[in-house]
């Protein structure tokens, strides 16, 4: 059986007929209205939109603002305060509080805006802050009071060796108690009372002065009196000043006026050898030392005016003349000695 030959003609005719309709349809879509120059489809679209818009109510075309927008509008323009933190009391008096949604009758909402600034956190027990005495270290509740308890020394222990372990205040307390119990011993103590030794005091002052120079820069290319160098030794300078002032004050309290004068001349020599800084403000410690020694000197001279002989007066005057160039305060001492003559 023979198969009939394939005839493509019907297929070609069907394809051509479909393609032939496309230009016609495209032409219909591009047809224009000669009256207004718009396409037919655009004209129908404008008619539909105009009809739809005219059917909507006016309230839908202009929607009302949200509750938050109404609140923002009621606040008005923001006023910049004069200070960083505005005065809360003044704002309350002027009734310039932030409006809340509760004032809007048209909106019902459970959200309420804050009308006052954020408050500080409160501690659970604020009463504890008002009683700082409870936390003091020296209060009886935190530390038991120490009581002086007498220690029985063994018979084979030397009394002089045991006294070396006591502080100066303890030694003063022991001697004072013995004098109170046995008043006759006071005369014997006065007869054996030695002259105060200034050597330990001078060694302490020299040690602190040496620390100042040891802390200075060692390079020759760097200044040793500029502010940078002072910052390196400022701690040692303050320690030196404190030592000079405190040791002189203790001697003044002991009422040993000749020893006070000897200490003034000794300490003045060490204060003079301290560095002189480029910034005048950094020489404040040096000036305070001179002023303190001058005050101790005039105090000693006033207490010795009745017991000082002419030879001692001339000796002090010659020594004080050498100190005038360092501080003007020493002139009061010279003036007092000149009046005494």
UniProtKB/TrEMBL annotation:
Which Gene Ontology BP terms does the record give?
nuclear protein quality control by the ubiquitin-proteasome system; proteasome localization
Q: A Pfam family name for this chain?
A: Cut8
For this protein, the record's InterPro entries field holds: Cut8/Sts1_fam, Cut8/Sts1_sf
What would you give as a GO molecular function for this chain, any one? proteasome binding
> Can you name a GO cellular component term?
nuclear membrane
> What domain of life?
Eukaryota
Where is it mostly found? nucleus
Which interval of the chain is the signal sequence?
none
Keywords attached to this entry = Nucleus
- Tell me where in or outside the cell this protein is found: Nucleus
Q: Which family does it belong to?
A: Belongs to the cut8/STS1 family.
Recorded protein name is Tethering factor for nuclear proteasome STS1
Q: Which organism is it from?
A: Macrosiphum euphorbiae
